[in-house]
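Sequence in, structure out.
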Amino acid sequence: MQEPARPGSGPAEQVVFGTAMGQSGAGAPPTNYLLRPGMPAPEPPPRKRGSGRLVAGVAVLALLVGGGAGAVGGYLAADNASSGPVSNALDQKTPAEQTSSAPAGSVEAVAEKVSPSVVQLQVQGQSSAGEGSGFVISSDGLILTNNHVIEGAAQSGRITAVFADGSSAAATIVGRDPSSDVAVVKADGKTGLPIVELGNSDSLKTGQGVVAIGSPFELSGTVTSGIVSSLHRPTRAGGEDGSQATVMDAIQTDAAINPGNSGGPLVNMQGQVIGINSAIYSPQSQGQAGSVGIGFAIPMNQARRTAEEISKTGKATQTVLGVSVRDNTDGGALIAEVVPGGAGEQAGLKSGDVVTKLDDRRIDTSDALVAAVRAHAPGDKVRLELGNGSRTVEATLAGQPVETE
């Protein structure tokens, strides 16, 4: 499904959530196109004498390249037949199988470490089918994924987890949080599964290398690589259907992420999971959603807190400031309403205040404030700068249970 993007502005932006291959059809598989042999080569022009010979030779080569690759090879072989012995790559022996370990910190090493723990999730709902990705967080079958990957099976649906070794198992929903787009499912009857190593998303730096692993377009075990393009990118987990409660403090990456990658891990070069791939930006003119090098992942520290709550209680708690906000004309987040008794009121916030900074983070929009709040846990203390900085308040963030229906 395709949703309008929130990280940028303009009517041509949308955020696409990469799950349901079966909802609108996966489309035809890619076709390989081959050059057709047998195309006749143009006759070479007569060679000129004197200083024009080199120029003429270059012109002949250029024409032959345009006319057909096979003709070029034949012409050059015939022209150089008397210049010496001919070497042919087909005569070389096949090298011995590579047995050395992958270099530490390489994409290959990351893939070797993490891929065994990545799972393809096949989802059958009452009226639709889809698929996405996930990764194993406990050896007895707990799998972390996106809520939007499995929500179609929340009401009398079916989830099948397909593991890297080819085995599969039915899975049930332990709990889910639509506001943070995080869910935990449990594979039935599985033990001894390889688990991922979780990293610290707070230590990420723009420009550092990352690897995405998942099942784009049902191609399980696909590995792509890139960098962290940006941090703290406010992105709505539900696209245009999502309220401000669904805004996530996303990691932006240029690692190729496509429909079906959702729920899979974004990994640093030490093989530690630092995010959950969740959404991509796709120009509205594009008929089929696909990677344009702008993907978004839920930071692992935020997802980990939610996953721990769900694993222990089946429920999740959302971090709140206790105010409703909208964009301010001159920038910042305009407080439209203050919830009586909430964290905002206790901190002294009033309707009409404009938040321009949370701790050291600049607040340009209402979504930026929501994302900054959601990056914290209930009970955290934050400093809010109002207007032009003439007033500052301290707030202790609260938490409220997340409703899934």
